[in-house]
Design goal:
3 domains; about 170 residues; mainly alpha; single chain; 8 helices; about 0% strand
Length: about 170
């Protein structure tokens, strides 16, 4: 049973309970309407439909029908494609022209991409140490200090874009 059908059944049970209490004169029509979440007038309408058609008269006749306000799928896809076109940056357009799919850096698909492409320092260094048969801490520290870090900095270090910039301490 889907949620809509369950809610419909629950609403009918509640109506039957309130109607029996109204018939027993425990509730006024206004109180019954308040319990059902409708006006006194709507409660009278429900009561009349129940007396004429039974429980089937209480079914929501809109259920199972398409909304008249529903937008056709082709219009939805067109609007989404236009929206995506407008939001593209120049980099995104260039990537599209080259046939490369752009994956935003914050997306789950991008997570770990640079590590897979370049490896992390933690994964590269142990391999390199094994390559040079370095098996003790003192020799590894010396190798890192004299060989690995200068080579790493030569490859990856970049000068500051704003050399005079110093952070202001509040």
């Amino acid at each position: 049973m889907n949620r809509t059908a369950w809610l419909q059944d629950r609403r009918m049970e509640k109506f039957c309970d309130v109607l029996s209490r109204w018939k027993a004169r425990e509730l006024s029509a206004q109180e019954a309407g308040e319990i059902l979440g409708c006006s006194e007038r709507q409660f009278r309408r429900y009561r009349r439909r129940y007396e004429e058609e039974g429980l089937t008269g209480l079914f929501d006749k809109r259920l199972g029908k398409a909304s008249v306000r529903r937008v056709p799928i082709d219009k939805v896809t067109w609007v989404l494609s236009e929206y995506r076109k407008e939001r593209l940056t120049q980099v995104g357009r260039a990537l599209l022209q080259l046939g490369i799919e752009h994956i935003p850096a914050y997306s789950p698909e991008a997570r770990g991409r640079s590590e897979r492409a370049f490896g992390t320092l933690q994964s590269r260094l142990p391999k390199e140490l094994r390559l040079f048969d370095i098996d003790d801490i003192a020799t590894a520290n010396q190798y890192i200090r004299e060989v690995y870090l200068p080579m790493h900095n030569k490859l990856f270090a970049r000068p500051a874009q704003i050399p005079q910039w110093t952070p202001r301490l509040a």
